[in-house]
Write a structure and sequence with these properties.
The complex is a heterodimer of chains A (437) and B (297).
Chain A (H helix, E strand, L loop, with lengths): L1 H12 L3 H7 L2 H9 L6 H14 L6 E6 L3 H11 L4 E7 L3 H10 L4 E3 L2 H5 L6 E4 L6 H10 L3 E4 L7 H13 L5 E3 L7 H11 L6 E9 L11 H7 L10 H18 L5 E7 L12 E7 L5 E7 L7 E7 L2 E6 L2 E6 L14 E4 L2 E5 L4 H6 L14 H15 L8 H20 L3 E2 L9
Parallel strand pairs in A: 1-2, 1-4, 2-3, 4-5, 5-6, 7-10
Antiparallel strand pairs in A: 7-11, 8-9, 8-16, 9-10, 11-12, 12-13, 13-15, 14-15
Helix pairs in contact in A: 8-9, 9-15, 10-12, 12-15
Chain B lengths: L4 E6 L3 H22 L7 H8 L5 E2 L2 H16 L9 H6 L12 H8 L7 E4 L4 E4 L9 H18 L4 E6 L3 E5 L8 E6 L11 E7 L2 E7 L5 E3 L2 E3 L3 E2 L4 E2 L3 E8 L2 H14 L3 H5 L5 E8 L4 E3 L3
Antiparallel strand pairs in B: 1-5, 2-4, 3-4, 5-6, 6-9, 7-8, 9-14, 10-11, 12-13, 14-15, 15-16
Helix pairs in contact in B: 1-6, 6-7
Classes of the chains: A alpha/beta (437), B alpha+beta (297).
Chain lengths: 437, 297
């Protein structure tokens, strides 16, 4: 999308996009790119911070990261690879993390209190990577301060918190609010989306997802107070457990591909191995029903790494497997010929043969490129999600690909999934529950 | 690095130690993602692809690391040289078959070998290669660097007694083993490397220090009836022949790694060079003629 707009802007004006942004007012730009007018107080705030950033010595977008734990550091190292971004600020309540940030990014401003970062007009965009149950407070303050916000998924740990964030994001219509359900932006998942939506699989009849990773999920710290804070994932009072941190992404992917939101969820959870006084299960199994009748079965485990992670979409004509950075289609014998698959690479999987799904394979071959060679430029889903956020900042604001509604929906179904596990009861989800009003 | 790291963490709170170990393993994976010569998306690969044409900005971690690498190369009189990749390739050590390149080819590669061709601009924090054909592969100190970082993080987290190693050739230890008085490690005798009988060459007690072992026989080829080891003498462009095995101990695992590699090249001239390097506590060499230089405490 960015390239497209870049080209349009260059054609229109003969300028590159940043020169364009500097020359034209945002009020002029917004209707061109988004087709909708944006007004209001929040808009003024957003405009002023945007200009102060772009008029600085660098044309990169100044970003503040709130929360410099493992995820915050992963975000930072991903942003480092993106020349559109500059890590301008890092906030963490723990001094060791601030020291780590200063060591890695000597020019970075560090903050112990996120509110100080929000007061800094040189930082127009923030990424919220705090524990999930802290998102509400931080997101509301960030939006109120006129910041553009990227909020890690889950957007919140309760439906009530998610509703408050979604409403605030809706109010702040001139500011970007993007949620970290990154598969919806990842090129590989988008390619498979087009296969499924175009009917290449026939009727999708069921879905299976797995996430296996042997890890304690525990974090260590020299300070016991910090250790309790760091291990919020293991505290069932504030954490949605594996259902929220992992299962959410499986359900969200299915929901996006099917264009339906879950209508009922049943689930089990067990604490099988990591018996270290934690309360959240280390193994969960969910069965998620969609209104059209399709069921997703997802299993998440912290006790085995065997067979890793995958998503499998079973259709009447073919099944699609997504694994690592690749995808394959397994056709039924009575499936109609699609044409292109005659030339496609085939990989053996025990007794099955998978057709490798590669976007634009024919075009790449015509250009003399090997479409099946490992692409060294393939980045992580997080990279593409952050890149979309940066493009939205430079060209937008457009409605985010993963906005407050998708973030809210995901909190609803992951909270319900966690409730199903805790109460061992079927949780039905009426459409009205997805309404933020 | 593509190697196995193992941690022995001593303490009473097992869940905490497990969590600390997992945290640091993730950090080592991040280091590998940044510095791997073989991963095309690593910062180092991007640097190798671009730095001949332009000054490439890098982050503080990468810049500081490269400054240390350059310093170690300078202090070892170039015997540790992270730009020997093209020579390794020419001799076939990156593939499966050894080849003896001709003298002209070696001379040509030597023209773009050496850290003098790598410009580090501290003010702009950029890296630039002044000649085309330069390739940086600091793999010889990669395990040591990862161990130094791992030790720092584990100590920050409050781990008081530990022995950690990467591929058994680089080790770092602090605090005490259950028996007390530091940690005892042994170097296997070269004669027993391929036999079932374990013969120990040296037993060393590490007290808050690191140890690195380098040998020429990690990967060897027979070329024209001569067995050649995989460590290249960057001055001559030929496989190093002066020493068979080196051991170096010191405060930093990265420095110990650089010195043990350099000593394979320096051989009997090691003493005067290694003595100049701060933090080195001892070394041990088996020279090519089987003579031993033992300067371990």
């Amino acid at each position: 999308m960015s390239e497209k707009w870049n080209n349009k802007i260059e054609k229109k004006s003969g300028m590159n996009r940043l020169e364009f942004l500097k020359t034209f007012s945002l009020a002029t730009l917004a209707p061109i790119v988004s087709g909708q007018k944006v007004h209001g107080k929040a808009m003024e705030k957003a405009t002023s911070v945007r200009y102060s950033s772009l008029n600085s010595s660098s044309d990169q977008v100044n970003i503040g990261i709130i929360g410099f734990g493992e995820r915050g550091r992963e975000i930072a190292s991903t942003l480092e690879r993106n020349e559109k971004a500059r890590i301008a600020g890092v906030c963490d309540t723990f001094s060791i993390m601030r020291t780590r940030a200063e060591r890695s990014y000597p020019d970075v401003k560090t903050f112990a209190d996120y509110r100080q970062m929000l007061d800094d007009s040189d930082i127009p965009t923030v990424i919220i990577a705090t524990p999930t149950h802290k998102h509400r407070e931080v997101a509301l303050d960030a939006l109120d301060a006129g910041k553009h916000v990227y909020c890690e998924a889950p957007m919140a740990s309760t439906i009530e918190d998610a509703k408050a964030i979604a409403r605030a994001a809706r109010e702040a219509s001139g500011q970007i609010f993007q949620v970290g359900q990154q598969y919806r932006i990842n090129p590989q998942h988008r390619d498979v989306f087009s296969f499924i939506r175009s009917g290449a699989t026939g009727r999708i009849t069921s879905i299976r997802s797995q996430w296996h990773n042997k890890t304690s999920w525990r974090r260590a710290s020299a300070a016991s107070e910090r250790e309790t804070e760091l291990n919020w994932r293991l505290d069932h009072n504030v954490s949605l457990g594996l259902a929220g941190e992992i299962g959410l992404h499986h359900i969200d992917l299915a929901s996006w591909y099917l264009n339906e939101r879950p209508s009922a969820i049943y689930g089990f959870g067990q604490l099988q191995y990591w018996r270290d006084n934690r309360e959240v299960p280390d193994n969960i199994q969910l069965n998620v029903e969609f209104p059209g009748g399709v069921h997703l079965t997802t299993i998440c485990s912290l006790t085995t790494s065997f067979d890793g992670r995958y998503d499998m979409f079973y259709g009447s004509d073919s099944t699609i497997l997504l694994r690592d950075k690749q995808a394959w289609m397994f056709k039924e014998v009575d499936a109609p010929m699609l044409g292109w698959e005659v030339y496609a690479r085939r990989d053996r999987f025990h007794q099955e043969t998978g057709i490798a799904l590669v976007a634009n394979a024919t075009q790449l071959e015509a250009q003399g490129d090997d479409p099946y060679a490992d692409d060294p430029n393939v980045e992580s889903p997080l990279y593409y999600a952050l890149d979309a956020f940066l493009d939205n900042y430079n060209f937008g604001p457009f409605p985010a690909v993963v906005g407050y509604q998708q973030g809210f929906d995901a909190t609803v179904f992951s909270a319900k999934a966690n409730e199903a596990i805790k109460s061992r009861t079927l949780q039905t989800i009426g459409e009205d529950l997805y309404d933020i009003d | 690095m593509a190697t196995r790291f193992e941690f022995l963490l001593l303490g009473e709170n097992e869940p905490f130690l497990r969590a600390a170990g997992e945290d640091v393993i993730r950090e080592i994976q991040r280091i590998e993602d940044t510095f791997s010569f073989y991963r095309q998306q690593s910062t180092l690969s991007r640097l190798n692809a671009k730095a001949c044409n332009e000054a490439v900005p890098v982050n503080a971690e990468v810049f500081t690391f490269l400054q240390k690498v350059a310093e170690l190369s300078r202090k070892t009189d170039g015997a540790f040289d992270p730009t020997v990749g093209p020579l390794m390739k020419a001799w076939g050590f990156t593939g499966k078959t050894g080849i003896k390149p001709d003298d002209g080819q070696i001379r040509q590669i030597l023209e773009h070998t050496g850290m003098r061709h790598v410009l580090l601009d501290e003010k702009k924090r950029t890296v630039r290669f002044v000649r085309s054909g330069v390739l940086l592969d600091p793999g010889a100190v990669g395990k040591g660097y990862a161990l130094d970082e791992a030790a720092r993080l584990l100590q920050e987290m409050g781990v008081k007694h530990a022995l950690i190693h990467g591929g058994t050739s680089s080790v770092k230890a602090w605090g005490d083993s259950p028996e007390g008085n530091g940690w005892q490690v042994a170097v296997r005798h070269p004669e027993s490397v391929e036999s079932d009988e374990v013969k120990l060459l040296k037993v060393i007690r590490l007290r808050n220090e690191a140890m690195s072992v380098s040998t020429v026989w990690g990967k060897t080829f027979e070329v024209e009836g001569k067995i050649l080891g995989h460590v290249i003498d960057p001055g001559k462009g030929q496989p190093a022949e002066g020493a068979l095995l080196t051991v170096c101990t010191g405060k930093s695992a990265m420095t110990a790694d650089a010195c043990s590699t350099a000593m394979l090249v320096l051989a009997n001239k090691s003493g005067s060079v290694i003595d100049r390097i701060p933090g080195i506590t001892g070394f041990f060499i088996i020279l090519n003629n089987k003579d031993i230089v033992d300067r371990l405490p």
